[in-house]
UniProtKB/TrEMBL annotation:
Gene3D superfamilies: Calcium-transporting ATPase, cytoplasmic domain N (3.40.1110.10), Calcium-transporting ATPase, cytoplasmic transduction domain A (2.70.150.10), Calcium-transporting ATPase, transmembrane domain (1.20.1110.10), HAD superfamily/HAD-like (3.40.50.1000). The chain crosses the membrane at residues 147-170, 182-200, 344-364, 376-399, 428-447, 854-887, 977-997, 1047-1067, 1079-1097, 1117-1137. InterPro entries: ATPase_P-typ_cation-transptr_C (IPR006068), ATPase_P-typ_cation-transptr_N (IPR004014), ATPase_P-typ_cyto_dom_N (IPR023299), ATPase_P-typ_P_site (IPR018303), ATPase_P-typ_TM_dom_sf (IPR023298), ATPase_P-typ_transduc_dom_A_sf (IPR008250), ATPase_P-type_domA (IPR059000), Cation_transp_ATPase_P-type (IPR050510). The keyword Disulfide bond does not apply. It holds the Pfam family E1-E2_ATPase. Coiled coil: none annotated. It is a multi-pass membrane protein. GO terms for biological process: intracellular potassium ion homeostasis; intracellular sodium ion homeostasis; potassium ion import across plasma membrane; proton transmembrane transport; sodium ion export across plasma membrane. GO terms for molecular function: ATP binding; ATP hydrolysis activity; P-type sodium:potassium-exchanging transporter activity. NCBIfam families: ATPase_P-type. This is Cation-transporting P-type ATPase N-terminal domain-containing protein. It comes from the Eukaryota.
Length: 1167
């Protein structure tokens, strides 16, 4: 038996019929008491020892903090009402006969499966006449508008401003500031070039994303030439007969002419969150289109049941095509990385402006009095040195390259709203790519569905239990000796086979071929049951025609059973009821059971046998289905009885239990290793499934999801009662969905504190609530799933991952990443790729050029590096090298995948989050009557932000120690400025002073020349007499100055070449194949070298860049020596940080099974 946690005091006890031994953990009521009981079929067993937990008011407030927003009901405004009233759709008014004539199609309203539909030739002709069933994309921003938006970023604005400033100086004094002609022009040109590079790359990204979407074209099931076939939705034409099933996305506007409990989510049109029922109207509907019961619209989602419809509108003529404004809209969301980059840009820009202004003021008031133009030019160089101009382009390029690489590995980055529906393409692409590629790196918790995600979704009937004996339908060496081989003549077997065959909603692609040659359309459970039943039924089609359905309630995730009433005569009447579903739900409706063809009352002995059988099946990881029947008496249930689901006019109790059927869905190959790898990467993996707790736990133990003990297994091992076992003794928990609605804040905290978590018997609402609660604790949550019941959680998650092959349209719609091959192990590739991208981005951020520039004012000395050369550095070889990092492979085989997530969730982070939430909650103004929070006005919100830096809480929050790793953090700044930056600065300055010394200037001479009121180092400068008495003319001064600036430029380049490899040294020394194995690094270095030598040694360029071809290559040895020193320091740094790196690695997990899942069928759980 499994966890079936119930809330005491706030709701009545919920009876859960499960196997013997299931424990029900009863969480405390408002008084803080905890007790555990055992429940069996409505009869409470004796209570054990009561455990007391006293919680103070402060404890309760702190535990509840951060969850309040989840408890508030949010209302959605209806949208588009006026537009919905003005659409031109009239076909829903027509009767079936009028509809068939108007569309010239063949549909069978009594037996839709026998409809002939259109012929293939007629469909082709109509497609040529009416065009494809696609919406015309709404108007996007013009390329010019997009380019202007990219141009007006903070970095580019600073560059343009600096360029304009240089031209203002040129206008004031043209002769003395003539060189600014080139500087100002280049600064402005760089801003335009930077915007163009980003614009070009975003256009490429748009094409990439569009190609991704083309990889998963929407398809639908259509009847053509009397055969059900799957065709692309774009090829639908008016008159096509379409089959809609749960999880489908409606491909066009359809008139429904047959349905079974069909419910449609119209929220994207009307804003209503509740699904609405749709059914056929033989005489048509008189309502307006959006309220017509027989009309379903393009792009709406089928959330329950199935239906047959005929296409009446396609493409732009559909309702959503007529109100195309609904498909557009702006997205205000930004990925965490986009926010971090924007914050970094603003911070760097502010620092650059402050430094430029401060040093301008210092320079103009001290050593450079009266030299305003020179000081302004210096301030501009400070701005340029601080700003990493190529960063936006590097980020976009790196992410686009990674997106293409992941697509090649069957991991598709997508957003089903499409590029064409969003106005701010630049922000959209950055958001989609950042979110989908880098969220895997940040993941701290992955909630995964079981069926179809972790398992193969290929159900095979394995065992059947008829109330007395267990039978096996699958050859297995793991069955016990008491299990007998299946025989259709055994008691109860014929009834269960009939229930499996007749209480089914599967469809076949063809009806004119033998049963075993047909393709079955349906969910995996019903497909497995149908395959099994078809082996023991002589004529499957004849059986269905002989016993037609009179009434049906399909399975859904709420009731967890499917009921059908058939015209199948018996001695007491004409109608027979069959029900199948979750055993505990079916059994609670039964009062008798079938024994050797006789009806017997359910006794305690039967319940014990049922518990044993259920436990035997579920503990092997099998899905268990219960079957029951009721032979309806002719009074009152005759053929004319008006059965109805809505008002409960159908039998719901007093059924006769027939038996249990178990089906096995083995884990996918690679799942076990994938989960083990994710756990070793510090990501908590938990299962959230609608299956029975025993089944879920058994599968979890096979795939590395549960390794330790739950309270129940520890109790069984030690012989202690579960009341004697403390929470900190166990690291695993299996939570029953029935308890979720009543859990308090501290109980959620306790659940998420476990490393191994399984939620069983959950509904879609439960899955959504689990995701919200995990996010409230600071988790970056990923959700994997393939069914319609997973879609709410997929949409809410930070990263929704859907399956392509087995996934429903609804789940793909909700997700922002799709695994094209349905391989769960591809999730590991996503995490590894995301982590490597983040590391590569950090490697590309390096801005040490500013340090030598400050000596221009501090010492002072001639400007070591001109603003133009700084631009060449940032947009030249540094850009080449940064892009080459996109192809970097992990430093070690498992280095990054053994490190904790960049923002780990632990006790310290949770308590910090809760303290802030509690403080925020106490400061909210609330309505005096409803006690609802009143959001602050914009003015008060701005005022609060302005006052925040002057409060103690602000500084405590910002200075609080965390384990989070940001894109630009203390370690990166330390390395860039205090370690590699210092070595690079020293190398450049040593080369600078050596070159000047060889040309007659000692450091003292340089200081004297720069401090004097006379301007040196220009063509019109007077002669300079150095400390050795030598007279240096203006031409020699200019040549020396050009050589010095050239060697500084080349020194930065050469040392940066060494830094390309030094920056990779974290787990190992900066040598070896792993470090130098990326040939693109050498290509980037070669490109940078060609650019540098071309600029320095090409005479025509000297007038712009100030280089000289007289610079001897022997001077290159100085920065080479400092480059070697940088590698030595990187090696020493590895040794110094090795202990902290080892401590930050995720510890080994005892018991992980990292070998392939070679045999998963019929593996008996060890627990």
């Amino acid at each position: 038996m499994e966890n079936s946690e119930k809330l005491v005091g706030s709701s009545p006890p919920i009876v859960d019929e499960e196997t013997a031994g299931t424990r029900a953990v009863v969480f405390p009521d408002d008084h803080g008491d905890i007790r555990e009981e055992r429940i069996q079929h409505g009869y409470p067993r004796p209570r054990g020892v009561e455990m007391k937990r006293e919680m103070t008011k402060e404890d309760k407030e702190l535990a509840a903090a951060g969850y309040e927003h989840l408890d508030e009901q949010k209302t959605k405004n209806k949208k588009g009402d006026n537009k919905l009233d003005n659409v031109d759709i009239q076909e829903h008014h027509l009767s079936y006969n009028e509809l068939g004539s108007a569309l010239d199609t063949s549909m069978d309203t009594k037996d839709p499966g026998n409809s002939y539909g259109l012929s293939a030739d007629e469909a082709k002709a109509r497609l040529a006449r009416d065009g494809p069933n696609v919406l015309t994309p709404p108007k996007k921003k013009s390329p010019l508008r997009m380019y202007i938006d990219l141009l007006l970023t903070m970095f580019n604005i600073l560059l343009i401003f600096a360029g304009i400033l240089e031209y203002i100086l040129l206008g004031i004094d043209f002769k003395d500031n003539f060189a600014n002609t080139y500087l100002g022009g280049i600064l402005i040109a760089v801003a335009f070039l930077n915007a163009f590079i980003e614009f070009f790359q975003l256009q490429k990204s748009e094409a990439i994303l569009a190609s991704f979407l083309a990889m998963i074209p929407p398809s639908c099931r259509v009847v053509r030439d009397g055969t059900i076939t799957s065709v692309p939705a774009a090829e639908l034409v008016k008159g096509d007969i379409v089959l809609l099933r749960t999880g489908d996305k409606t491909p066009a506007d359809l008139i429904i002419f047959a349905s079974t409990d069909l419910k449609v989510d119209n929220s994207n049109l009307t804003g209503e969150s509740e699904a609405v029922e749709r059914f056929g109207r033989p005489e048509g509907s008189k309502s307006r289109p959006v309220e017509a019961e027989n009309l379903v619209f393009n792009s709406t989602l089928i959330v329950n049941g199935e239906g047959w419809g005929v296409v009446v509108r396609t493409g732009d003529h559909t309702l959503i095509g007529q109100i195309a404004a609904l498909t557009g809209g702006e997205s205000g969301n930004k990925s965490p990385l986009a926010v971090e980059i924007a914050r970094f840009v603003m911070m760097v820009s502010a620092i650059a402006i402050i430094f430029a202004v401060v040093f301008f003021v210092v320079g103009i008031t001290t050593v450079y009095k009266g030299k305003g133009a020179e000081t302004v030019t210096f301030a501009v160089s400070i701005l340029v040195a601080f700003v990493p101009e190529g960063l936006p382009s590097v980020v976009t390029l790196l992410l686009s390259i990674a997106a293409k690489r992941m697509a090649a590995q069957n991991v598709l980055v997508k957003d089903l709203q499409g590029v064409e529906t969003l106005g701010r393409l630049g922000e959209y692409v950055l958001f989609v790519v950042c979110n989908a590629l880098l969220t895997p790196f940040q993941l701290t918790l992955l909630a995964t569905d079981k069926t179809g995600t972790l398992t193969r979704n290929q159900m095979t009937v394995t065992n059947l239990w008829n109330g007395e004996k267990m039978y096996t339908a699958f050859q297995s060496n793991n069955d016990s000796d008491s299990v007998e081989a299946f025989s259709i003549s055994a008691p109860g077997m014929r009834e269960m086979v009939d229930i499996a065959a007749l209480n089914s909603r599967v469809k076949f692609d063809k009806m004119d071929v033998p049963f075993d040659q047909r393709t079955i359309f349906g969910d995996a459970t019903e497909t497995g049951l149908t395959r099994f039943a078809g082996r023991y039924i002589q004529d499957y089609d004849a059986l269905h025609k002989q016993h037609p359905k009179v009434f049906e309630i399909p399975f859904n995730s709420s009731n967890k059973w499917a009921l059908v009433i058939l015209n199948k005569p018996h001695t007491a009447g004409d109608l027979t009821l069959y029900i199948k579903g979750a055993p505990e739900r079916v059994l609670e409706k039964c009062s008798t059971y079938l024994k050797d063809g006789n009806i017997e009352p359910i006794t305690d002995d039967f319940k014990d046998a049922y518990d044993d059988a259920y436990n035997y099946m579920a503990s092997r990881g099998h899905r268990v289905i219960a079957c029951a029947q009721k032979l309806l008496p002719s009074d009152p249930y005759d053929l004319s009885y008006p059965f109805s689901k809505n008002d409960g006019k159908y039998p719901g109790t007093e059924f006769c239990f027939c038996g249990l059927i178990s089906l096995e869905d083995p884990p996918k190959h690679g799942v076990r290793e994938a989960i083990g790898t994710l756990r070793l990467a510090g990501i908590k993996v938990m299962m959230v499934t609608g299956d029975h707790p025993k089944t879920a736990e058994a599968i979890a133990r096979k795939i590395n999801l549960i390794l330790g003990d739950t309270k129940e297994t520890l109790s069984a091992k030690t012989g202690r009662s579960m009341e004697e076992i403390y929470e900190d003794e166990v690291d695993a928990v299996v939570v029953h969905g029935d308890s979720i609605d009543g859990l308090q804040g501290w109980q959620w905290d306790q659940i998420f504190s476990k490393n191994e978590i399984v939620f069983a018997r959950t509904s879609p609402q439960h899955k959504l609530e689990i995701v919200k609660r995990a996010q409230a604790l600071g988790h970056i949550v990923g959700v994997t799933g393939d069914g319609v019941n997973d879609s709410p959680a997929l949409k809410k998650a930070d990263l929704g991952i859907a399956m392509n092959i087995s996934g429903s349209d609804v789940s793909k719609e909700a997700a922002n990443m799709i695994l094209l091959d349905d391989n769960f192990a591809s999730t590991v590739k996503g995490v590894a790729e995301g982590r490597q991208i983040f590391v590569n981005l950090k490697r590309s951020i390096h801005t040490p050029e500013v340090i030598p520039q400050l000596l221009y004012v501090v010492v002072p000395i001639p400007l070591p590096l001109s603003a133009i050369l700084i631009l060449v550095i940032d947009l030249g070889f540094e850009l080449f090298v940064a892009l080459s990092f996109a192809w970097d492979k992990p430093e070690t085989k498992d280095g990054l995948m053994r490190m904790a997530p960049r923002k780990p969730v632990n006790d310290r982070s949770i308590m910090s989050l809760k303290r802030r939430a509690l403080r925020r909650t106490k400061t909210l103004r609330r309505d005096t009557e409803m006690q609802e929070a009143i959001p602050p006005s914009k003015i008060s919100a701005w005022a609060s932000k302005a006052k925040a830096p002057f409060t103690r809480d602000f500084w405590e929050d910002n200075m609080e120690r965390t384990d989070d790793e940001s894109l630009v953090d203390g370690k990166l700044l330390s390395y860039s400025y205090m370690e590699a930056g210092v070595i690079e600065m020293l190398g450049a300055l040593v080369a600078y002073f050596v070159v000047f010394y060889k040309n007659g200037f000692t450091p003292t001479d340089l200081r004297m020349a720069q401090s004097s009121k006379t301007t040196y180092f220009t063509k019109s400068s007077p002669d300079f007499t150095n400390s050795r008495g030598q007279i240096i003319g203006s031409s020699q001064q200019v040549e020396a100055f050009a050589k010095a600036q050239s060697i500084v430029y080349l020194s930065i380049f050469i040392i940066q070449c060494f830094n390309v490899f030094a920056v990779k040294a974290r787990f190992s020394f900066p040598f070896g194949k792993a470090v130098v194995g990326n040939y693109y690094n050498f290509a980037g270095i070669f490109g940078g070298a060609c650019l540098g030598i071309f600029i320095i040694y090409t005479p025509p360029l000297h007038v712009v860049f100030g280089g000289t071809y007289h610079l001897s290559p022997l001077y290159w040895l100085i920065p080479v020596a400092f480059g070697v020193l940088l590698l030595v320091w990187a090696s020493i740094r590895v040794l110094i940080l090795r202990k902290s790196v080892e401590q930050s690695r995720v510890k080994d997990i005892k018991g992980l099974m990292m070998f392939p899942t070679m045999r998963t069928m019929s593996m008996r759980s060890k627990h």
